Amino acid sequence: MRAIVKQRVEDKLYQNRYMVDHGRPHITVTPHLFPSRNLVALTQVCPAKCYQFNDRGQVTITSDGCLECGTCRVLCGTTGEITWKYPRGGFGVLFKFG
Hints:
This protein is 21% helix and 18% strand. By secondary structure, it is α+β, with helices and mostly antiparallel strands.
């Protein structure tokens, strides 16, 4: 009988690969002076931790490593706070598990 080996989510995510399309991010945050509640929420709910606060308290994104899960589209996609489009062919996330 084979032993069942449990693997942590972090270990599975580490196996994914991301082809960066330099100079053409698929997500951008609309410039703002103060972040909305939804933008602040993105810093907590993004599973890839792509959204962060900068030194002026604004929310920024580093789309390298984005899982393209759509969480940010649900929170901010219709409000105009972010612009989201699929990466060009050959770029973006390559899932190893899932």
